[in-house]
Amino acid sequence: KSANPQWREQFDFHYFSDRKDILDIEVWRKDNKKHELLGTCHVDITALPTKQTNCLELPLEKHPGSLLMLIAVAPCTGVSISDLCVCPLGDPNERQQISQRYCIKNSFRDLKDVGFLQVKVLKAVDLMAADFSGKSDPFCVLELGNDMLQTHTVYKNLNPEWNKVFTFPIKDIHDVLEVTVFDEDGDKPPDFLGKVAIPLLSV
């Protein structure tokens, strides 16, 4: 019941500089019966100065009102995607450095540095067919806290192999890793093929 809402929410998106991306923002009104689009706006990430917080007032296109946002573009730290053959923990020297970094005597050096999670996404087996051809175009999305990374799409395959390694910084040991498989569907929203949730405390 507000025309001047304050959300004060923070979201982290992993933006890799080899891509030219536009941040699309939609504002919706919802009640028990229907949802109504109140406006959209777009931010060209490549046009923003890096390593600083940019305060933007964005007018909503074709609708009254505006959004006030703080957007910071900074180098990704602790997050990576790599092929299985160049796994970040595959180097014995790197493993030793990590063991030293998280040993008991260094526990209180940086309380925000809880640790990190490395996930190898190998393959899926016997997925549901989402297309009329009896196949699917599956990709896998990994979410930890408000961090999200995804694999590439393997087309026309019910037994896709991704063989990717994902590394996440851990901000809360009580977080849950959510792994969801979707079917890519062109310009339409992807179809849900399945999901698994893994509490970090169970690892």
What is the strand and helix layout of this fold?
Blueprint: E1 22-30, E2 35-44, E3 53-59, E4 66-72, E5 80-83, H1 92-101, E6 115-123, E7 138-144, E8 147-150, E9 161-170, E10 176-185, E11 188-199
Antiparallel strand pairs: 1-2, 3-4, 5-9, 6-9, 7-8, 7-10, 10-11
Domain C2: 1-58, 92-203
GO molecular function, one term: calcium ion binding
Subcellular location: Membrane
Please give a structural write-up.
- This protein folds into two domains: 22-73, no CATH class; 80-202, C2 domain (Immunoglobulin-like, Sandwich), CATH 2.60.40.150.
- The strands form four sheets. It has a four-stranded antiparallel sheet, with no helix packed on it. The protein has a three-stranded antiparallel sheet with strand order 5-9-6, with no helix packed on it.
- The protein has 203 residues and is mainly beta.
- The mean pLDDT is 85.
- It starts with 21 loop residues before the first strand and ends with a strand.
- The chain has one helix and eleven strands; from the N terminus they run βββββαββββββ.
